[in-house]
Amino acid sequence: MDLIHPHSAHDVQEALRECAASRRRVLIVGGRQHLDKGNPTEVDAELWTTLMDQVIAYDPAEMLAVVEAGMRLRDLREVLAHGGQEWPLDEPGDATVGGVIAAGVEPIRRLRVGSMRDTVVEMDAVLGDGRRITSGARVVKNVSGFDVHRLLTGSLGTLGVITQVALKVRPLPKAAVTLITREGGLALGRRLLDALWQPAAILAEPGRVLVRLEGWPSEIAEQAATVRALAACEEAADGTFADLPFPDAPILAEVGVVSSRLDQVLQGVGSYRALMSVGTTWVPCSTDEELSLLRARVAEAGGVAPVVRGSGGLGDTPLPAGELHLRIETTLDPASVLAPNRAWAG
Amino acid sequence: MADLDAVRRDLERALGSDAVSADPLTRRLYARDASLIEGDAGLVVFPADAGQVVAAMTIAAQHGVAVVPRGSGTGLTGASTPLDDAVVIVTSKMNRILEIRAEDRLAWVEPGVFNLDLTTALEGTGFHYAPDPSSQQVSSIGGNVNTNAGGPHCLAYGVTSAHVLALDLVLPDGSLVRLGAEGPSAPGYDLRGFVVGSEGTLGVVTAVCVRLTPNPPAVRTMLLDFADVEDCARTVSAIVARGVVPAAMEMMDRGIVRAVEAFAHAGYPTDAAAVLLVEVDGSEAAVDAQATEVEAAARSNGVGTVRIAATEAERALLWKGRKAAFGAIARIAPHYHLHDCVVPRTKLAPILAGVYAIAKRHELIVTNVFHAGDGNLHPLFSFDRSVPGTLERALAAADELVRLCIDAGGSLSGEHGIGLEKRDFMPLVFSEESLSVQACLREAFDPNGRMNPSKVLPDGARCGEFAAAVIGRDGAIPEGTWI
Fold it and tell me: Chain A partners of B154 at a C-beta cutoff of 8 Å?
């Protein structure tokens, strides 16, 4: 396996031009935290983005941070904390900004902080044949032209190398608490959801519910009292809600269905962690058969269940507008050198 | 050139003769949107449902004619202005709310549903649809999707794109695809995100699945007035610096306040240089905490009075003043040109000074009412075009304004889009390579270039002959263009 370790977007351009010309297939690698997501791909080289890790511009008053895509989340957190702000992704510190964006990872605190996709306001990228583009604008609100960055976000490194992004950041919460109830289940999760205004996250498991509250100190006190009135609970360590659950399971599927179908999908499932209201639910599987059974139920409910840890890929969900996807892929990566077959297939 | 009579006959056969119009008055009505640019509609089609859109698009494809989708026609950039006898597909008859599912926090609506009608339909559910463009009484959800519309409350809640979960799109070849998903993740590339804001250039949206937002338990609306415009602009940054992201933060200058007061009687102070309308929401405790910070930020930046709406009626009145702004400007002069650009929030004060200087230089009346929290300016030049030379001055001012915003690190548009009005400015912000990639992606959806041609991108395929129809370029008004 060859290694390409560029220092700059220009280096990336040169490398990809060469790869496209010689049909050398490339896997784009950031912090290696989300590589399991995606279908199996065979490549000849890895392109590491981690040397492109500089802050380009950051002014807290603009609530925007422009950084190179190889920057680790750990470093970004430190930079933003000086401005009293955060990019609200709770992924491991080793993960890179570009890796999180390319993998389409959504914040666990999505109910309160919104979608990761809406935080990426500008993107510099190098396409599969070395063309270098900018999309979006370095302001918090923009409608100018076609948002190519929307396509690269969540593309699993199959359309281009993200080299730099402008991120919409937000104030760090003034106060936060994680509460864990002594009982669990989706029904309790729903009761908590109905009782709270914009909780950061409500994660229901069969035996407990993790409630993450963030906001102003008086607001947190008020909301924590509401939780306590509904269910006996105790306070947990700060980051408890953020780690990917079921670390010992060989396969972890990330189910995505609408909330009203969760009960149906999770019937008979012994372990799960469901992000209430959002519908994203992590389910551990010990075998491929278990995963297949789960996926069959998810498909019935109109959802998807990509694997985020272990093997199993994205699943065989039919892809709407398959031909359009193919044309887009051919447009941005004409030589098909970027992680062939890794993305959703039609 | 396609035979429009043959297209009309096929459309009438498929959709019924009521759904197709070729009469001169109708064609004239649909030859423009709310911008200053007028084009030519060949035929106007009023489909009743997605099936009829599929039929119309298939027929257009068979005849090789261009199609321009249109919602309520409130767009401000000429994005739904048909050129060269294109077929206009008007979605206003597709105005049913198909489904409201509070448990899943979503609703399916047809594109012709008015933004405000959706909000009204949601009353009593505990949810609302967050994007609230000032045009919301008459603008359609389909149009909002195509411009990625904003609005005052997008500061905290995000623009339209953050509230569209999925959409049905009829592609130029007549095929119907569903993009995005009701659930939290959709398979494939984010085509939904690419289509939102694409100004009708990729297909016709026939249904939209929108996200519903829970109503905040408490809301507080405050009106801050300032003797100095710069103090007002600085307060915006100071509020953000205190870690507060208000639900809305709207700035109005003296000119617009006076026009509004005479019209809406909202009790705005007409002697202030500028006012800031700030709304915070959340739990009671959060509202208290945020309001305290907002007031402190304003006090340290020379605020005059801080008025807090004591009742729901007073709150409604304060908002009436803001939302009636564009209705009020007719009192200033008979014609206006409304602009839209975004600048870094910290540069609001110098940019406003620049806006006033441009107006003075071109002897125009300028008023400002805008989304200050987003840095999204809406300078409005008022004039009487019957006075010779005035229109030319307004267009020259528009050109300077765009360059002022771009030079400050801003963007061409925050929420109105590019359309025809700004497409020739695109090279100011994008490299040739970036623009060519955008054009290629557009072609992936529309290989024959029939979908709202000539819009958004400069000098694209088959749009060369219309390059002159863009106002703003050198301030020239092309011959034959109605302004």
Answer: 141
Which helix (H) or strand (E) segment holds residue B351: the answer is helix B348-361
Residue B480: Cβ-neighbour burial (10 angstroms; 0-12, 13-18, 19+): exposed
**Residue B249 near chain A (CB below 8 Å):** no
Cβ atoms B301, B261 nearer than 8 A = no
Of B151, B130, B142, B54, nearest in space to B95 by CA: B142
Of chain A, the end-to-end C-alpha distance in Å amounts to: 29
| B258 and B273 Cβ atoms separated by less than 8 Å | no
Residue B463 has pLDDT above 60, yes or no: no
How many angstroms separate the CA of residue A71 from the nearest CA in chain B? 24
Q: CB A117 to CB B193 under 8 A?
A: yes
Residue of chain B whose alpha carbon sits nearest to that of A141: B414
Cα(B299)–Cα(A141) distance, integer angstroms = 28
Backbone angles phi, psi at A250, to 5 degrees: -65, -30
For chains A and B, CB pairs below 8 A equal 247
Neighbours of B33 (CB within 10 A): 26
Q: Which of B192, B290, B415, B437 to mutate to test the interface with A (most CBs of A within 10 A)?
A: B437
Q: Is B143 left (phi over 0), alpha (psi -120 to 50) or beta?
A: alpha
User: ipTM higher than 0.95?
Assistant: yes
Distance from C-alpha of A134 to C-alpha of B435, rounded to nearest angstrom:
9
Distance from CA of B103 to the nearest CA of A (A): 6
A187-206 confidence digits (pLDDT tens): 999 999 999 999 999 999 99
Q: Select the residue of B290, B413, B444 nearest A331 (Cβ to Cβ).
A: B444
Query: Is B450 within 8 Å of B64 (Cβ atoms)?
Result: yes
Predicted confidence (pLDDT) per residue in A49-103, tens digit: 999 999 999 999 999 999 999 999 999 999 999 999 999 999 999 999 999 999 9
CB within 8 Å of B371: residues ≥ 6 apart: A141, B150, B151, B152, B154, B155, B248, B249, B250, B378, B414
Residue B207's H or E segment, with its range, is strand B204-211
Closest B-chain CA to A257: B183
pLDDT confidence of residue B469: 34
Mean pLDDT of B72-82: 94
From CA B410, how far away is CA B404, in angstroms rounded? 9
Question: Which residues from chain A sit within 8 angstroms of residue B162, using beta carbons?
Answer: 114-115, 118
Distance from CA of B476 to the nearest CA of A (A): 23
> In the structure encoding, which two tokens stand for residue B448, read together?
């024959």
How far is residue B46's CA from residue B13's CA, in Å, rounded to a whole number? Answer: 14
Q: Which residues of B touch A137 (CB under 8 A)?
A: 342, 410-412, 429
Q: Evaluate whether B477 touches B388 at the Cβ level (below 8 Å).
A: no
Q: B125: burial class by Cβ within 10 Å (0-12, 13-18, 19+)? A: middle
How far off is chain B from A148, nearest CA to CA, in Å? 7
Q: Is B43 on the interface with A (CB under 8 A)?
A: no
User: Which of B397, B380, B348 is CA-nearest to residue B229?
Assistant: B348
In the DSSP assignment, the letter for residue B173 is T
What type of residue is B142?
G
